[in-house]
Every structure is written in structure tokens, then in C-alpha cells.
Amino acid sequence: MDFKVTDLVKNVVLAGIGAAAVTTEKAKDVADELVKKGSLTVEQGKVLNEELKHNIKETLDNKKKKDASVEELLSAMTPDQIDALKELLNKAAKPQDKEAKAEAPQDEEQKAEQKENTQDE
């Protein structure tokens, strides 16, 4: 398995940004729903929405700082240290690969059963 640590870091950053974007949209939807139900006035809804945006921005800023520190750490590593890290990550991924392979035959068995059931009907 060819593994690039930089790809991992990039995917983590993108996942964090995506999660924050979805959270912002959902928070706005919740605030709008509360306004519709009369639980909040429009002004209270705007204040709540701004507060949520601020919290999400703060979370993203913290995430970016953490990601930058990971990148700094990786850039300071020697090639031997990077190889050792890759080896550890590959070992950690092996149990997941075994689980995926173990699940695959079950899927085939289920497909065969479904096929038999379809033919019987």
C-alpha cells in the first residue's frame, strides 16, 4: 500500500472544512425553523446565527493551527522517521483490511441467497 502522509493531512483538513460548512448550513436551518415557530424573533435568530458562525470560524482556525503543527512536525522528520511512521500506519491499516476482506464473503453469500430466493419465487 503506497501511503502518503501529506495526502492524509490534506484529507483531514478537507474533511474538517466540509464538516464546518455543513454545520453552518444546518445551524442556519435550525435558526430559521425556530423563527418560523415563533420561538425566536428575527433579531434573536440573526444573533444566534452570527454566534454560531463565530464558533465555527474559531473551530476552523484551531483546526488549521493543529494541521499546520502536524505539517511542521512532518517537515522536521528525517526520511527514516517518515518510513517508521508509514510502517506504523500500514500496520494500523492491516486490521481494517482484514475486516473488509472478512465481510466480502458474507456479501457474496447474501447475494447468492437473494438470487436463490428470487429464483424460487
In words, what does this structure look like?
- Residues 87-121 are annotated as: Disordered.
- It contains 3 helices and no strands.
- The protein is mainly α and 121 residues long.
- Helix 1 packs antiparallel against helix 2.
- The protein is flat and about 55 Å long.
- The mean pLDDT is 75.
Question: Any key phrases for this structure?
Answer:
mainly alpha; 121 residues; flat; 3 helices
Helix content: over 70%
Beta content: under 5%
Tally of domains: 2
Radius of gyration: 24 Å
Number of helices: 3
**Helix/strand order:** HHH
Low-confidence stretches: none
* Overall pLDDT metric: 75
How far apart lie the N and C ends?
Answer: 44 Å
Major sheet attributes: none
How many extended strands?
Answer: 0
Coarse structural class: mainly alpha
Shape: flat
Region (Disordered): 87-121
What is the topology?
Elements: H1 5-37, H2 42-76, H3 79-120
Summarize the structure.
This protein has 121 residues and is an all-alpha fold.
